[in-house]
TrEMBL record:
Signal peptide region: none
Keywords in alphabetical order: Transferase
GO molecular function terms listed in the Swiss-Prot or TrEMBL record: transferase activity
Domain of life: Bacteria
Domain Nucleotidyl transferase: 29-164
Name the record gives this protein: Nucleotidyltransferase
High-level lineage: Bacteria, Pseudomonadati, Bacteroidota, Cytophagia, Cytophagales
InterPro entries reported in the protein's UniProt record: NTP_transferase_dom, Nucleotide-diphossugar_trans
Length: 300
């Protein structure tokens, strides 16, 4: 089987960050967070990386990443637009944002033929996550068996505001049986609380959550496309509707068409949601370089 592919979701607008955090520099030599994910993926045996980007940053992304990655891993770029995979009868001129992570994955269908991982551009997942993904995608993935790297909720919060997380329910085999996207989670005193529509919910700190770190068999595309085609007519008048990966995963589980294993490996995470997060990430990366987790310069 082919080496697995890494699909990086880099088309987000970054409204809370106030800029293109996908191409902002955080490492000691101006490295983006994306570069650490690619570096770790190469070490874990991945053979290709596919970037999902907005057309506004396509050329900038190519100029930034292609020279660094040439000869190290196969690279491809795919553009996600408001119109991508949306028939004209379902296009709404009032809509301002694409349809989310599940839509982004579908946009990459023609660029991926091997088992693949999906990650966010602005999250640092740690080398252990990619080692777990690489092993699963080479040895265990099947048409009806996908995976997700789980992270304890207490380790993936921001000190600078609320965060969105996919909160997981699991069975005795540590497989996903359901996920709820909660969009306003924060530490409040000694509790972690989600405030959805002013209805507070206390969530245990060790609850596994999704950081959008997935592993899929290529058959996922066909199933996601089927669910997408049902989603469009139901949401054509809702300009804020989003087609998330977790909603596809939930549907496949409910239909008993797939199991999703939750992998260990979610030990190190940091990310960028707010401008105030940047110095925290810069300091964390400097510390990892000093510990020898990464070479002084990633691509020399």
């Amino acid at each position: 089987m082919n080496k697995p592919t890494l699909l990086i979701l880099a088309a987000g607008i970054g409204s809370r960050y106030g800029g293109n955090k996908q191409i902002d520099g955080f490492g000691p030599n101006g490295e983006t967070i994306i570069e650490y994910s690619i570096f770790d993926a190469i070490r874990a045996g991945f053979g290709k990386v596919v970037f999902i980007v907005r057309k506004e940053i396509l050329e900038t992304a190519k100029e930034l990443f292609l020279p660094k990655l040439q000869g190290k891993i196969e690279v491809d770029f795919v553009v996600q637009t408001l119109e991508s995979l949306v028939p004209s009868e379902y296009q709404n001129p009032e809509r301002k944002k694409p349809f989310g992570t599940g839509h982004a994955v579908l946009c990459a269908k023609d660029a991926i033929q091997a088992p693949f991982a999906v990650i966010n551009a602005d999250d640092f997942y740690g080398k252990e996550a990619f080692q777990a993904l690489g092993k699963f995608l080479k040895d265990e993935v099947k048409e009806n068996l996908h995976c997700m790297v789980g992270y304890a909720l207490k380790n993936v919060l921001s000190e600078n505001g609320t965060v969105s997380r996919g909160v997981c329910e699991t069975n005795e085999h540590f497989q996903l049986i359901g996920m709820t996207e909660r969009t306003a989670i924060a530490q409040e005193g000694d509790q972690i609380i989600s405030r959805e529509d002013d209805d507070p919910l206390v969530i245990p700190p060790d609850t596994p959550v999704s950081m959008n770190c997935w592993g899929f068999h290529p058959s996922f595309f066909e199933e996601a496309e089927r669910i997408w085609k049902a989603f469009l007519p139901e949401n054509k008048d809702n300009i804020k509707s989003e087609f998330y990966i977790p909603s596809v995963a939930n549907t496949l589980i409910e239909e008993k068409k797939a199991n999703i294993a939750i992998l260990e490996g979610g030990t190190t995470w940091f990310g960028v949601t707010y401008p105030e997060d940047k110095p925290v990430v810069v300091a964390a990366l400097q510390k990892l370089h000093k510990k020898g987790e990464y070479p002084e310069k990633l691509w020399e």
